[in-house]
Amino acid sequence: MSQTEPPDEWADRRRSDREAKTEYFRDSPHSPLPVEMRGDGFPGLSYFDPDPAYRFVLPLEEHDEKETVTVETTADGEQTYDRWGEFRFDIDGETQTLQAYRPSGGDERFWVPFRDETNDEETYDAGRYLDLDPDEHEVDGEWVLDFNRAYNPTCAYNYAYECPLIPMANWLDVRIEAGEKDFPAEPADPQGH
Fold it and tell me: What is the C-alpha to C-alpha distance for residues 81 and 103, in angstroms, rounded to an integer?
């Protein structure tokens, strides 16, 4: 992704990404949705309009010590991550900070989960995720943190999945009106609850 990508091309790319995800969820045998929600039963996905104000190109401020953090999951399990560094950015004149995590075990991608003031109203109540792959998101030593690419964890669609919960360090007290909105149907519950 280019830092100087024209706004029209950038917005078209976000819309194209969303169309591809919709098609995958509706038609793929690997969709996280149960079979009865695919095809004609697919309720669709919902998004905020692409907004370049929520796209940032930032340095990652690496922590001197990469603390290992245990994160609880939706299925009462645990996953471990290394708290690698943090991103600082401004929204509505206020500086915000998000921690960037790497799965313990050497994965080069960063996991940047967050909760914000849109949760419980417009977006999934447990929060959303951003994944940053060096090949796609690192440009000249800086990272593209684009909230327009924020997505729901798989447990937002189907309770059969186990999803890591958002560490409190990444709970923001501002609205992030970008990315994926709440799933417009009740998540599937394999237990029938």
Answer: 4
Dist. CA 139–CA 153, nearest whole Å: 26
Output the pTM of the full model: 0.91
* 12 pLDDT more than 60: yes
- CA atoms of 55 and 129, how far apart (whole Å): 15
Q: What are the domain boundaries of the chain?
A: 52-170
> Does the structure show a pLDDT above 70 at 187?
yes
Output the CA angle 79-17-140, nearest 5 degrees: 75
